[in-house]
From TrEMBL:
Chain positions covered by the region annotation Disordered: 214-234
UniProt protein name: Carboxypeptidase regulatory-like domain-containing protein
Taxonomic lineage: Bacteria, Pseudomonadati, Planctomycetota, Planctomycetia, Pirellulales
Keywords: Carboxypeptidase, Coiled coil, Hydrolase, Protease, Signal
GO molecular function annotations of the record: carbohydrate binding; carboxypeptidase activity
Species of the source: Roseiconus nitratireducens
Domain of life: Bacteria
Residues spanning the signal sequence: 1-17
Presence of keyword Coiled coil: yes
Amino acid sequence: MMLFPPKNVLASLIAQARWFTAVAVMVGSSITVSAQTGTNREIADNAKTKQSHDATLIEALESRLEKLESGQREIREGIARLESKLEGYSSDTTGQSLVTIRIRSQSGKPLSGFEVTLKSDFNDGPLAQATGTSDGSGVAIRRSMPYGTYDIQLRSNGWAAYIADRVLEVGQAKEWNITAPDPDQFSDMVLQSKLRAEAFSELPFGVIRESRGGGAWSEEYTPEPDAEESSQSYPRLGHGISEIASTLNVEATRTFEQTDGSELEWDWRFDRSGQSSSKRLWFTAEGVALLEQFEVDTVDFGEQSEFFSDLQRDESVELYIVDQIDDVKQPRTIRVPTGKVQIQVDKIFGRVDEPLRRAIKEHATGSGKSHEGQRWLTANLQSESGWIDRVFSRSGWEPAKNAFLILSRDETVSAGETCRVVLASP
């Protein structure tokens, strides 16, 4: 960003230019004085030599004087330009500029309901932030902001995007038109659960965390079906676990060309499409519900406990505390963007039964022992775990490439049509 000198500096530059002019005049005068020095005899004796020398000196000094005068003109012209620009910025005494952020569809239709946050980079310019929601004309933010570099965060109905390094200069109004997904381009997806509790009867529940110090930890995978000895103290369905569930999420990604020729990637997730940022699709043996709110905690079991009796000193068990699950529906219909979407199975849950709940209260040392709400343990399966084919039917599903997921599948959702997805046990 170009900064302009104050007027006292400009006055100094002008004074220097005048000094250059005075020096040039003095140099010219010295030529005349030099030509008149010496005695008449010396001038007569050396007339030819000094005439040639003086001519050369005069020519060199005249050339230098011409350069000084040229430099003086350039300085004056530069000062005039600086003063002109300074006058142009004099009306902005706050160092701020008007910013307008407008949201529109690919067809140019104004889009309302987009939450926009404009936040400055603390490394470049004053700290500043503005938020707004786009109205019927698509305008989300229209206000004066300090100069600097800004990032833009955008969200609406599950969609999110991020734009970095937008520069705002002093006195120069900016209008950023952002092309976004059309909220009207959604269709129905019908979800159905055909999970059978019996398929999960042998699955060990409980993910063990090992502390690594400094708040970091590692998680162990669930013991495989042939590792019975190492999983004897894990709860199972009918012994510590009373029911099972699995969570799903739905995602989509779209790329839109912007008015400046750049491309902006938008991603959509079902778990942020409502009021709760932690919402999950909750598949059970009875149907599909919505998991609205949960917390994650850890508990330590003592040596006297029937469960997890072989935990080491730096190990604990991951515990999910579920506060709100809405009514189960079979099937359940949700709204998803048209086009390609990805469905992901991310976790398997087992609800703690009453005996294990009492054991947690009696032996556990984590804060989860006193928290109200349902308590659930999880299973942490590897992508090629032998448990996957025992508990899930792979019809239409593939092993997830992400290490934190279990299964995934892609579906193409057409406008006005219904897409159906089933999660089943063998």
